[in-house]
Write a structure and sequence with these properties.
The chain has two helices and five strands. It is of the alpha+beta class.
Length: about 100
């Protein structure tokens, strides 16, 4: 699965492919939206992605690129993961939280 051209511009080629591959196999995930163009006033945040589960109108998770690492925020309770160096690690955290 390819991500639409012009989207997720803050991701490098490898991270774009990682996200596309994950979305292809992520049952119950409706979409991922790139919120990076929006102003957030979050120092050091280079990218913010919203992950939406099927049937939900608000994001379940936010994935934040902080410097050269990634952090996962769970919106319902505000929990925040440790910083990890790879997007794939954050996507695995989502899979674990979903029971997958």
């Amino acid at each position: 699965m390819a991500l639409p051209a012009g989207t997720f511009t803050g991701l490098d080629i490898a991270d774009r492919q990682t996200l596309a591959d994950w979305l292809e196999d992520a049952d119950g995930i409706d979409t991922v939206m790139d919120f990076s163009p929006r102003r957030w006033n979050v120092a050091g945040a280079r990218g913010i992605l919203g992950v939406f589960e099927a049937g939900r109108e608000i994001a379940t998770w936010l994935i934040v690129r902080e410097g050269s690492g990634w952090i996962l925020l769970r919106c319902r309770d505000g929990s925040i993961s440790n910083l990890t160096s790879r997007l794939a690690d954050v996507l695995r955290l989502i899979d674990r939280q979903r029971g997958g």
